[in-house]
Design goal:
Elements: E1 9-11, E2 15-16, E3 24-25, E4 27-30, H1 38-45, E5 50-52, E6 55-59, E7 68-73, H2 81-88, E8 94-99, H3 106-117, H4 128-135, E9 142-149, E10 152-161, E11 165-173, H5 182-196, E12 201-207, E13 224-227, E14 230-233
Parallel strand pairs: 11-12
Antiparallel strand pairs: 1-4, 2-3, 4-6, 5-6, 7-12, 7-13, 8-9, 9-10, 10-11, 13-14
GO molecular function, one term: arginyl-tRNA--protein transferase activity
Catalytic activity: N-terminal L-aspartyl-[protein] + L-leucyl-tRNA(Leu) = N-terminal L-leucyl-L-aspartyl-[protein] + tRNA(Leu) + H(+); N-terminal L-glutamyl-[protein] + L-leucyl-tRNA(Leu) = N-terminal L-leucyl-L-glutamyl-[protein] + tRNA(Leu) + H(+)
Family: Belongs to the R-transferase family. Bpt subfamily.
Length: 241
């Protein structure tokens, strides 16, 4: 570990878990403003924390420990046959673009994605304030990995950028292109970008094995999970180096 556990931490109130409805969720929230920098945040990622908007948090639920932070050592990643097929399905009409600034055409795509794909979720109905407060922050550089079909933007992966790692925050895409498995494509694009920029890890957020919405994360190997305050290999649960 490269970071000590912060001394200034708050504890949120309990509220209903959006992933496991039968559980109550509670969060540790970083209060020390000195932690709000790319370098310090990278150390906190190693301790199982994550970002939402400007806030750094980690689950600290009273009766549940199902959330386990998941990361990929990108230089060791091996795409499966299925992942290779999906990537190769993209013709020369598709291209990946990297942008360091939010663009005006992002929000209409986000709005369409939430409205058509997540009508049963907490982010529906979408609005611009919610979009900004969830995805962006003032103290961290963000990379936007875009997928284009000809002259049409069809997917954006919002990706936090630290010195030695990336953290996948959220991907939204045009549901009209769902048959291209764009969720998979955008994770593979983030892995490729991490490799190209010589980073060690891509953090994929929290894994909850009993939540169907998160099972896709288990398809990327090798992976490491943060279990009982150590990183272990996801399959064998042996301590990772």
């Amino acid at each position: 570990m490269t970071e000590h556990f912060p001394s200034k931490i708050g504890l949120s109130q309990q509220f209903s878990c959006s992933y496991l409805p039968e559980q109550q969720e509670q969060l540790l929230v970083i209060l020390d403003q000195n932690c709000y920098s790319p370098e310090r945040f990278e150390g906190l990622l190693e301790l199982g924390f994550r970002r939402s908007g400007d806030q750094i948090y980690r689950p600290h639920c009273p009766k549940c420990n199902a959330c386990e932070s998941l990361r990929l050592p990108v230089q060791q990643f091996n795409a499966s046959k299925s992942q290779k097929r999906k990537w190769n399905k993209l013709s020369d009409e598709f291209r990946i673009e990297i942008n360091q600034q939010e663009q005006p055409n992002y929000y209409p795509l986000y709005e369409k994605y939430i409205s058509l794909r997540h009508q049963d979720g907490s982010m529906y109905p979408p609005n611009h304030l919610q979009y900004e407060s969830f995805l962006f922050c003032q103290w961290l550089p963000i990379t936007f990995i875009e997928l284009w079909h000809l002259d049409k933007l069809i997917a954006v992966a919002v990706t936090d950028t630290m010195p030695s790692s990336l953290s996948a925050i959220y991907t939204f895409f045009d549901p009209d292109y769902e048959h291209y498995s764009l969720g998979t494509i955008m994770i593979l694009a983030q892995i490729n970008y991490a490799r190209e920029t010589h980073r060690q890890h891509l953090y994929l957020g929290y894994q909850i094995d009993s939540c169907k919405k998160m099972r896709y994360k288990s398809h990327y190997k090798p992976a490491q999970r943060f279990v009982n305050d150590i990183w272990v290999h996801s399959d064998t649960r042996q301590k990772s180096s």
